[in-house]
Every structure is written in C-alpha cells, then in structure tokens.
Design goal:
With about 600 residues, the chain is α+β, with helices and mostly antiparallel strands. Helix 4 packs across helix 16 (about 540-545). The longest helix has 23 residues, at about 135-160.
Length: about 600
C-alpha cells in the first residue's frame, strides 16, 4: 500500500465497503458521541467520516487528535445506516473504522478556525493565509481560478493563438501607473523595471512576424489599492493580432470571454449581445466608462427645462460655460423618505445634495411634489416627466454643474438607486464594449494637453485627425465593461512612425524624447510593421465576478493587504547595508 493513502477523502463509496484503505488529511473536526469518536478527515478533494470506539487499539491516540492535525489513518470501509447517510458529500454513504493512526504533523493553537463560517479580521487571514486557504470557500475560489485559466488557454489555442513569454525584467513602461524599479548591480545608478504590462513586447512580437500571440501575463504596478485592484501585481490574458481592425479583435475575444462565463458562471445568464457604447455617451448616460447594464436606468440631460426657471441655483449655474443639468430617473422611488435618503447620499459623497421631484396621487389626479417642483412649476415639471417616461409613484433626481464635477457621484447614485429599488437584475453578466475614447485630455490647472489613455493607439482618421483640435481626436481604443467593472482594455495600435511622432508631439513629447524612451519600438517600426491590435483581460477580476466576491483579495492566493504589505512574508522589508552597498544604493529616511 502507498505510504500515505490508497484513496483521497472524496473517493470512497459504498462500492468500497469491506475494503482496507489508507487515508491522509487534516482533522476537520472531532465529535464524541457516547464514547465513540467521529473524525471528519479532510483533504483537497473532500471529507470522509472516520470513527473509533473504545475497543480500537488506537483509541487513546485518536482521543488526542485536535483540529488541523495532519494524520494518516488505516481502516475498514463500512456502510452507514440508512438514517445516517449524508447526501451532501460524495462519501456520505460510508464511514471508515480506524485500525491505525499516525500523526504526520501536529498543530498548535489555531489563530483562526478552518471549520465553520466564522469571520476573522483581514489582517489575521492574510498573516495566516495558509490556514485561511484551507477553508472550503477559499479552496473553491482557487480551484475556480485554476480551472478558468486552463479553459482560457484551451480556447485561445483553439483560435489559432500560441503562448509566448515576455521579459519580467525590462525597461520602464508607458502604462500610466508607477513602476516597480529594480536596481542593477552590474550598472550602478541604473534601474530595470518590472513590466506594468507586456505592451511593447507584444507589439514587437507582431513586428517579428508572429501572427497571433497570447499570454497569461503577470503585471506589476505600484498603485493605490481598491476593492477590485491589487496594489502590486496581477495577471491578465494578454493577446495581440496582426492585420486586424477593431471588429476583428471583438469577434475574437468575445467567444472566449462568453464561453468562460458560461462554463463557470454557476448558471447565471450571460448576455449574448454586447452593445457598443461611445465613451461620451457612457459618461452622459451612466456617469462612468464601465457601466453596469443590469441596471436599466439611463441618465438624461434636462438643462433646457431649468434655463430661466424659478429654481435659481440651476438657473445661475446654466449661465456658466460648460455646465448642464442631468436627471436620474427612479421608477418606483416616489416617496419623500426615499428621496431624502438619496439626497443625504449625495451629501455624504461630497456634493451639496441632489434635487428631486416625485409624482404621487393628488386631489386632481397625479401631482408633482418636492422642492424643485414648487420652484419650476407644473408645465416644466410635466415636460421633465414626459421626457423621462415616468409616472405616478416614480421620482427623478437632478445634479448640475460641469459634468466632470458630478458625473462620478451621479454614476454611483444611479447604482444605489437601481439596487434599492430592485431594478438591477441579479444572476446576470451584462457586457458592453465602450468605444471611441478621446486620445487626449487637458489639465484644468496648467492647460497642458496629455494622453488620456494608451499613447500607442491609432488615432481615428490618422494623420489628418491630428491636425485639428487634439481634444476632438478619438482613438481606436476600447474597454469591455461587465457588471460595473472594467474587464478588458485594448486598442488598435499606431504602427506608423510619422503618425506616432505627431501624436506624441501634441502631448508635448518631441521626436528625440520618443526615440529615447521607446527606442526599441521606434527602430522596429522602421522595418515593416504590420497593422496590429489586441487587448488584455484581467484574470483576477474575472474570477472575482465568477466567484461573486466584492473584494479581489478573496480570489488571489497570496494577496497584499490594503497597505501593499505581505503580512505573511513580511514584505516589503529593509535591505541590509551589505545589499545596498552591492547595489551602490543608500536609503534615505523621509522626514
């Protein structure tokens, strides 16, 4: 017999009754039923109930077992009485009578329990992650992650892609976040960088003549943490294709993403039709470029109804250039209590508040109520109601100013309204391509023009588009939104040097600067670069959605905490004086 096991803890069935078996695993829990000891033995695959009575020669040893001890048992498989069968586990029809036991690894007092659903502080869970990972939910999440990555690889190979690895130690990348720098011992005072993404390399792979590339790529960015973003490193499905346009990329990646969500989505509805939404429309309708389309609410501009009205705040506001008033419809939200609650939400988010109108039963039929209704009068109120398609029992909320100042809060308010009024459809994955991103943006304080997204995207209209107002230039850039998260980001690349130089010039980068920073790509593009494009899909975020977890750390095996610290491995840590000297570095304490 094998030294540790003849079967896993999920393998035994009634077909094995009468056999002598050997199992190894962890003590999940111990129960004493009238002198008979029942032990739930757990391994990666499942649980088997083993038992021992006082007649067993190892009863005294079994009495010593405690939770999370790692043990090996030898025993005989017996059928459970019909009344004791547990249909919730594969081994529920049998139990194993212990004849011998060996402790492979005793466990001390546990900082967190593996058995049960107790909640523990995140700091405790991350410090003892190896125990946290033994819990059933975490085992399920990590298996989901592994299975999903394997499925992605198969699907990409089936579409004619090959997987190639790109360097981990490289030069600084233009992805827009802070780099993790790596000092060079052989070149004092110079630094490598961990790649924020394989962006430049995958483009060079296309120039090298490899038609379809993909990689499950590690990416490193020194970013502030969020619930849906790791502060140090993450993985993405990275892909690139030659001789393609935007629609070719969409047609290639959609079946992969769609298939993965159907395979691992637990029976949730997976939308087949993925609408294309222009970036400007997404911001206007949803207040975000990653809209949650499970929520049917769509904001509308209602500025004309307030110009010259009796509501002085909006009237004065609209006299300023670049301002507008938008409405968030709220079907079923027509109560003063709900409206006051949403107004308080806006104040908590940093705005003065949200104006509102709600429609209710009046003496002469339906009437509009609320401070705004009194100020602007029944004619304007009725025009707003008709525009928004609302009726009795409904409400509308209003925000005004320059869109950049209120869009984000409006978008979050839209989400809250959808949730509270049960308008947001659960058990569904709703996808949308957000397209036509602006290439450039202007800094409000300095007035300087810079890239708003990936600087290597092809501008729509090519060189001709770059001769007008930079703020009017759109790029062949696109994101895929799913349930309020950015899942995929990509672009058709700028493979023509003259257009690239001009694009960077508009953002304040001269030709010499471009060649200095991106010399490898500039050189390669002089030797016949093909049209190419691609995208990257966040692996961690996909698993987070499929596992229905609100926090990305729940689906990463060994994540950092919210302060970008690894509490288990004590990272980041101080370097020794000898290490610093070898790297020609000196650490300077901040005052």
């Amino acid at each position: 017999m094998h030294a540790y096991r003849s079967h896993t803890c999920a393998a035994l069935t009634k077909e094995n009754v009468g056999e002598s078996v050997r199992l190894s695993g962890w003590v999940h829990r111990v129960r004493d039923h009238g002198g008979v000891l029942f032990v739930d033995l757990r391994d990666h695959y499942g649980i088997t109930q083993v038992l021992c009575d006082p007649d067993s020669p190892v009863f005294a040893e079994v009495e010593k077992l405690r939770s999370e001890w790692c043990v090996r048992i030898d025993g005989s498989v017996k059928a459970r009485d019909a009344s004791l069968i547990n249909p919730r586990i594969p081994t529920g029809e049998i139990e194993v009578y212990i004849r011998d036991v060996e402790v492979l690894g005793a466990a001390g007092e546990l900082p967190l329990m593996v058995f049960g659903d107790q909640e523990y502080p995140e700091e405790t869970r991350l410090r003892y992650r190896y125990l946290d990972l033994r819990r059933e939910k975490m085992q399920s999440h990590m298996k989901l992650r592994s299975d999903m990555v394997a499925s992605i690889r198969r699907r990409m190979w089936d579409k004619g892609f090959r997987e190639y690895q790109t360097p981990i130690i490289t030069a600084s990348s233009p992805e827009g976040a802070r780099d993790f720098l790596v000092p060079s011992r052989l070149h004092p005072g110079r630094f490598y960088a961990l790649p924020q993404a394989p962006q430049l390399f995958k483009q060079l792979i296309m120039v090298s003549g490899f038609d379809r590339y993909f990689q499950i790529a590690p990416c490193f960015r020194d970013e502030d943490p969020r619930a849906d973003r790791s502060p140090t490193d993450f993985y993405q499905l990275d892909m690139e294709m030659s001789f393609v346009e935007q629609e070719d990329v969409f047609a290639t990646i959609q079946p992969v993403i769609e298939g993965v969500f159907e395979e691992f989505g637990g029976g949730h509805k997976v939308d087949k039709l993925w609408p294309r939404i222009r970036y400007g429309d997404a911001m206007k309708w949803y207040g975000t470029d990653k809209p949650d389309l499970r929520n049917p609410l769509k904001m509308q501009e209602v500025s004309e109804h307030f110009r010259g009205s009796g509501f002085a705040i909006f009237t004065r506001l609209l006299e300023q250039e670049g301002t507008e008033v938008r409405a968030i419809p709220a079907p079923g939200g027509g109560s003063r209590k709900f409206c006051d609650r949403m107004n308080a939400y806006a104040q908590k988010e940093g705005l003065p508040g949200m104006g509102y109108i709600f429609w209710r039963e009046g003496a002469d039929g339906m009437e509009a109520a609320g401070p705004l209704a009194k100020n602007i009068g029944p004619e304007r109120t009725e025009a707003i109601r008709r525009q928004l398609g609302l009726g009795k029992g409904d409400a509308a909320f209003f925000l005004g100013g320059k869109p950049a100042g209120f869009e984000a809060v409006a978008g979050r308010a839209r989400n809250v309204i959808g949730e509270e009024l049960n308008l947001t459809e659960k058990n569904r994955f709703a996808f949308a391509w957000v397209v036509d991103f602006p290439m450039y943006e202007k800094d409000d304080e300095s007035g300087e023009i810079d890239f708003s997204h990936n600087p290597f995207s092809m501008p729509q209209g090519g060189m001709e588009a770059l001769e007008g107002d930079p703020l009017d230039v759109l790029g062949y850039q696109y994101d895929l939104a799913c349930n309020g998260y950015e899942l995929v980001s990509g672009a058709i690349r700028n493979h023509k040097l003259d257009i690239m130089y001009r694009a960077f010039e508009l953002a304040g980068y001269g030709k010499d600067e471009v060649e200095k920073r991106f010399g490898g790509m500039v050189s390669a593009f002089k030797y016949g670069a093909p049209p190419h494009g691609g995208c990257a899909a966040g692996i961690d975020r996909m698993v987070m959605l499929l596992a229905d977890e609100p926090n990305i750390r729940e689906v990463i095996m060994f994540p950092m905490n919210q302060r970008a610290e690894d509490l288990m491995m004590n990272a980041p840590s101080e370097a020794s004086p000898e290490q610093l000297m070898e790297l020609s570095l000196r650490a300077i304490e901040r005052e």
